[in-house]
Amino acid sequence: MSPINYPFSLKLLSIPLVFSLAGCHHAPTQFGEIEKLYDFDHQVHYRQVQYNDNKFAIRIIADNYEAFNRQSVFLLRHSRHLCNHLVPQLTIKNGIQRFEKLPTEPRPYQPDLYAEIKCIAP
How would you label 57-68 residue by residue, b for 16+ Cβ within 10 Å and e otherwise? Predict the structure, then answer.
């Protein structure tokens, strides 16, 4: 049976079914819920929590010492994206690595980069 020969009631039923399935594609997370995400451009795994429309927390998972530059740039760019037309105010809580030009001993394990972002009016 070709699609042209289907009964009109079946065609009429299929339209709302397609739209209802399309509506289930993405359910936004609730405030306070942790999202596990990955940014392909910066190659960073991160966890994001949205407390309200203007307050977020981000934990960027540390993978190695050399990735800190990439993680820092991602944090700045992503905070700007989250705040849209508002100004991001970053508070770094953990994960700033110290810099040694010529280290004499192996670098210790670095903690995750954790920051809180507040979006404020310009």
Answer: bbbbebeeeebb
Is residue 85 a contact partner of residue 43, using CB atoms and an 8 Å limit? Answer: no
CA distance 66 to 113: 13
pLDDT tens-digit map of 62-74? 877 667 788 889 9
Q: What is the DSSP string of 15-50?
A: HHHHHHHHHTS-PPPPTT-EEEEEETTTTEEEEEEE
List, in order, residues 6 or more apart from 97 with CB less than 8 Å away: 65, 68, 110
Which residue stretches of 25-113 are H helix? 68-83
Domains of the chain, by residue range, sit at 26-98+106-120
- 8 A C-beta contact, residue 121 and residue 86: yes
pLDDT reported for residue 46: 95
Phi, psi of 40, rounded to the nearest 5 degrees: -75, -35
